[in-house]
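Supplementary Text 2. Reproducibility record for the structural model of the 344-residue chain.

All settings were left at their defaults, and a single model was retained for analysis rather than an ensemble. We include the record here because the model underlies the residue-level annotations in Supplementary Table 4.
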Amino acid sequence: MISHRFSLPSLRFCALAAFLAMPGTAVAADEGFFAGETITLISSSDAGGTAGTYARIVSDFLGRHIPGAPVVVIQFMPGAGGAVGANYCFNRGTKDGLTLCHIQPGLPHLQLLDPRNVRFDVREFSYLGRTSTTNSAIYVRSENPAMTLLDVREHQVILGATGKAADTFVDPTVINNVLGTKFELIVGYPGGGEIDYAIETGEIEGDAGPVMSTFLRHQSWIDDGMIRFLVQTGSVRHPLLPDVPLLQEFARNDDERAMFDFLSLRSEIGYTLIAPPGVPEDRVAVLRKAMADMLADPEFLAAAARIKLDVIPATGAAVEASIDRVFATPPDIIARLHEALDIR
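Retained model, structure tokens:
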């Protein structure tokens, strides 16, 4: 599996082994369709973030594993927590397999919690496979006296956020509502770079966002002890943060666990590639096999390792199962999340 300077436990190897052990998908009869074609891969994130980096590496390698070796070009459509790109894919993406989409992991949550900008139903996409999970974490500057998440009930922590649809806003806000912590959110930063600068200058004290992104952008902050991780969301602890507790570990009853599980399912959806509704099933089968072959390709894994990207894959069917779990969240839990986020 991938090796780099982080000492990772066997989780990543086990994830890949389980992925490769899945039954193979039959190659479609019209696999020659893609020869000489160009596939447009829509990324619902910007080019500079971690999600965009995953989208780029998929666009670089996927065509090699599709029969006929089509050219894959990437187009970035960020905005509204990923809804802009997803709306385009759902409503305007071609239904022939020549439009693919690299989605934000929080789209099912956005559809359930704040559908004002949603013009799609995530359950109608065809899921081709996941490149990696997307645990998020909250970290603070080490000068803040809060040593653990529960310490934030006594010591205020000022965080930055780009908008109310972002993890940077949703996770701390829900935690405040459930556990009585004192995260203060300053909303409206244009992007991660501006949040980083505000942390460096002391304007704010921390951030909440993907673990992988934090390690890629701020390895020196971690090495120098400038920041401290308080909590992470996900189904299992990320290999890079084996000693940082999961949010579910703070749940005191079933309702709190259900709310925290809801947030953590973003990680299981992860960095995923999809096709719009209406693509013929045999063509979807070709694309799913290509995705699986790419994720097992030593050259792909070596390229990911060189830029320090984790690869913790899952099949499209596994991602669909995680989305089903999101939509199985009881209505009263969704209502409480609406209340916590002040969504009307």
